[in-house]
């Protein structure tokens, strides 16, 4: 734990993103901060697929 903190302090800061990088990675960063939302969306898609399969059969 202490070694990780020291390594993080010694690491160089990440370079700033340009406009294109910000636009491309904005949602990816947002989703990585909220992993539970991704699993909830995946579960909702599975349920929705099952409902459509029953309706369209």
Description:
The chain is mainly alpha-helical. It has one domain. Helices cover 81% and strands 0% of the residues. The longest helix has 22 residues. The radius of gyration is 20 Å and the shape is elongated. The mean pLDDT is 81.
The overall strand count is: 0
Radius of gyration: 20 Å
Average pLDDT rating? 81
The domain count comes to: 1
Structural category is mainly alpha
Annotation field: number of helices: 3
- The helical percent reads over 70%
Largest sheet: none
Terminal Cα span? 55 Å
Residue stretches low in confidence (pLDDT < 50, at least 5 long) are none
User: What share of residues are in beta strands?
Assistant: under 5%
Query: How would you describe the shape?
Result: elongated
Notable traits:
81% helix, 0% strand, mainly alpha, 57 residues
Quick structural gist:
With 57 residues, the chain is an all-alpha fold.
Describe the secondary structure blueprint for this structure:
Layout: H1 2-10, H2 19-33, H3 35-56
């Amino acid at each position: 734990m202490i070694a990780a903190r020291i390594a993080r302090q010694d690491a160089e800061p990440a370079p700033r993103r340009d406009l294109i990088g910000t636009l491309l990675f904005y949602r990816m960063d947002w989703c990585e901060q909220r992993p539970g939302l991704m699993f909830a969306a995946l579960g909702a898609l599975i349920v929705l697929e099952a409902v459509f399969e029953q309706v369209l059969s």
